[in-house]
Structures are given as C-alpha cells and as structure tokens.
Amino acid sequence: MNKFFTKKEMFQGEELESIYRVARRPVDKEQDIDLSASENPMDAMGQGFCPPFNQRTYIAGEGVICQQDVPVKMRDGVTIYCDIYMPENRIDKIPALVSWSFFGKRPGEGMSEWQIMGVPPQTVSKLAKFESPDPMYWCRMGYAVANVDTRGAGHSEGDVSMFSRQDCEDGYDFIEWLGVQYWCNGRVGMGGNSGVAMTQYRVAAYQPPHLACIAPWEGTTDVYREAIYEGGIPALSFNEFIAASVTGNGGVDDQVAMARKYPLMNGYWRDKIPDFSKITIPCYCTAGWSHFHLRGSIQGYRKIKTKQKWLRVHRDFEWADAYDPYNLEDLKRFYDRYLKDIHNGWELTPRVRLDVMDAFDCDYQVQRKEKGFPLERTQYTRYYLDAASMSMQEGSVSAASEVTYDSASGEAMFDMEFKEDTELTGYMFLRLYVEAAGHDDMDLFINIQKADGEGNWIPWHVLDEPHPGAWGKIRVSHRELDSKLSTHYQPVLSHERELKLTGGEVVPVDIEIVPSSRIWHKGEKLRVQVAGRYIREGWFEPLAWDTDNKGRHIIRTGGEYQSFLQVPVIPPRYQSGEYIYR
C-alpha cells in the first residue's frame, strides 16, 4: 500500500495539489497490544491509538455516563463519531464542552498509566482526551463533555484535514448539532490546550450560533510562522512525529510533505490562519513563557475582535498548568458565566494576568494584574551591540567591529550589566548586520538570557530543566518583512521569496523575539546569545531544525553597522525614594 496520496484542493482561492499520508490503522480488538512498550511515545499518552468501534451507553465512572461512538453527519454527508459524557442523574438541561482534535477521543482499554508530563499519575482520569477537559471533573460540575474524532480520525469517515477550512466547517456543523440535543441548554463551549486550543480559534471564526465561548489554552495560531518554518528555518521532525501518530481509516493532511513541496507562504498556509476579526464571543486565553505555543497564544489574544477576552500568562509547562486545581476553578467561573449564565463576578477578572519570572523556580510576581498586552507603560529602549568588547550599551557604538564563529559549533554572546533593578516585559527584537563567509545563507538562533555579575548563566526552570531563555530564529534568506503585519516592536517576516546572499554581502536582519516577562536585579547581566544551532539538550519533545549553515558567521557592530537589541522596559507603577512598587 502506498504511504502517500495526493488530491487537488482549493486554499484561499488557490488550487494546489495536497499531499496526504495514509493514517495508522485502528487495531483489532483481538490484538494484544502493550502500549507502554510501543516505540511511539505518543501511544503512552493515548494519542494515536484507536480502540474498537463500539456503540453503547454505559457507566463510565461514578456519577458519569457515556454515549460512545455517537454518529454525527456533516453537511457533505461524511459521518464523524464522538463520545459524549454527562452527569448520570441529570435533571435540567446542561451546557456542553467540546474537545475538537484528531488526537483520538479516548485511550485504549487496558492502557498503561495515562502519561502527562509534569502531572502526577491519576490526576487526570482515563476518560479525558489528550490535552482536553476531564469528564470526571466537568460532568460533576454540571457539564457534558463531547470528545470528538474529527473527520478522518479514529473511525470517523474521510481524511484528516489539519486546521483547515474543511475542519472549521465540520466544527460548525458539529456544534450546531450538539446545541439542539434534547439534553443541551443550547450553549456550547470549547476547551483544551495545545493542539486542542489551536482548533478553537479557527472554528470560532466561523461563528456557529450555539458556540457561546472558548478557552484556548496555549495554541499556535500561524502554523507556518510558529511551527513549520519558525523564522524561515524548517522544523519538520516534530510535525512528522505528530502526523505519524494520527490513527484513522483514511489519510492525514501531511504538513511536513507540504512544507517540502511549498516552502514559501501560499494559500495552503494562509488557510490555516484564523480570521481573528470574526471571533466575537468571550475568550479565556492562556500562554506559557516557556513553551513553543507562546507566540501564537499571545497573538490570538491580541488579534481576536471580541471585547470579552482575558489572558493569563504563566511560567509553567502547559499540561501542569491546565490541570492545576486553582486554574480549573478559575476556568469553571468563566464557563459558568457564559454557558450557565451565572452572574458570578467573572467580569471583574483582570483582563491580563502575568507571572514575572526571576531565576530558577522563583517568580518575582505571580498573576500581576494588567489592562492589556503589550503593557501601555512600556518604554522601548535599544541596547547597541559592540563586538570589540562583546558588550551592549545605551546609545550607538562609534567604532565598527566584528565577531565570527563557526556556524556548526560556535556562538557569540553579548552582555550588559544593569545598574538598577529592571523589568523587561513584552516584545523584544534584535537587529543584526550579518555576513555568511563561504555560503549563500545562514540560520541564526537567538536566546535572551540572564547572568550574574560574574557572567554565570541564570536560567529559569520548567519541568525541573533549565530553559534557554526567550528565543528568536531567522533564516537570513527569509529576512524580508511583511509591512502589514510588522510593528515598531514586532518584526514579522513575509516568507514570500528567498533572498540568497552573495559573497561578502552584509545585510541587516530584524529577528522577532517571543514575548517574555522577567526581572533583572542590580548587578545582573542581560545576555544575547547567537548561534547557528538550537542550544538545548535533553528536552522530551523532539524539537529539531533543518539548518542550512556552512563556514563561518560574521556579526558586524558599530559604525555603519548599528546592531541592537530593542527591549520593553517596564517602569515601576510607583516609586518613593528607594521604595519601588511594580
């Protein structure tokens, strides 16, 4: 059997040949499969495994019933299947929460411990779909939970179409079907983090009438810029890992094969960007300073049209945050307000809540109240790089100098010591004047770090591992900016053409750094780390980039080459003598 097949499809008015990977097939019930011994780590988390088709209603847990493998017909006649959990002794009509993704709507019977990094065993029940609301919590709170196998996933008919117009239309159809079920009060919400969050923005933009609110907790919103070609550098292995884990009877939209076929921005990639202007319902968004969904999560919050929107940004890993009991109660207040019409004071919740990180596991402030993001009181400041001293300073550098490093193994670090406590919260960007010695392109990986007075790196920790710091990336041939999307604090690449380098050519590049929030104390150093590779070891997610580096990288500073880091300095809210309140 062929591993791939193609078909013609329309994306944003552009007809393209789409590549589909043949999905992993559901297993037979008689097969004795030990998921804990699988070579695919997604199996141990329930993603990629599809239990046998079995339409029934049964007691799923104390006080919770499940209608399993319920068929729902889409507008084009395709049937998809869902599991619907609800309170066993329901009296009144209740709202429904939807988990919409291709991850598999329930773990397999007999599966080993439900594995979620950063979350103790048995915290989440085995009724929960991967990265989704747990029915054993939400049903007891008076909600139904619909775990959906989207088109092509599990036993659902058709082919998996990731984050596309087709997926959004299906989401619309399903929500409208769900909202008129005899047990439903007519209000439907969506919930879940990561991949399950990504779908929420897209479906909400299609405005299904019964969709009352969404809670996208940490989700990429621009697949090309934030996942497949971050900074223009292909990152295909992780997405290959995801596509290979999807189980179904059809095909899977193969974003990796499409990235190889269409390496520049086109209709296929634009089709996966939500129309934020059409999202008008209440939204509770979260973002994590430590995770790759960060840029998309904050972009989503900023761009959605609704005025009823809230953002919470934390320093933890996404799964630990999603199932934290305090955060669950917080989310319940949001859902109760907009799905049960309980006037519980939710509107008094600060529009933005930020964790301001310090060092290791220490936070300077937790859930600090703000009115918006970026912060209105931001003072954008530029620190100019000086290769002669490998330092940074306020004000331009008069003398030109340069630093070189081996593109495969070297790095360059520029430090600046703070003379007083300084908070940097928001967007940074780095302008570098660069040259590739011996090649026509170069990939740059940037980390923004903290060091002590002696120059020792001070990381923050996530899942007990040192995090490399706020990051940015760029493939220099992709340096052209999108003038409509870029701002004075956030350069956004257009990715519409390649501009290869010629021998001896020096070019300026503006490198977007993901948002961050951190305090530097007097005597501590701000560090810019530049390398031709991703510097991080031992991380459980298989993150890797297909770099195009040869020879040496040259960074020029000073004189006609004013390389700088622009930072968002946040002044104290109140200061009296030596007393400072932030």
TrEMBL record:
Keywords: Hydrolase. The keyword Cell membrane does not apply. Gene3D superfamilies: 1.10.3020.20, alpha/beta hydrolase, Galactose-binding domain-like. Transmembrane segments: none annotated. It comes from the Bacteria. The keyword Cell membrane does not apply. Residues 332-566 form the Xaa-Pro dipeptidyl-peptidase C-terminal domain. It holds the Pfam family Peptidase_S15. Coiled coil: none annotated. This is Acyl esterase.
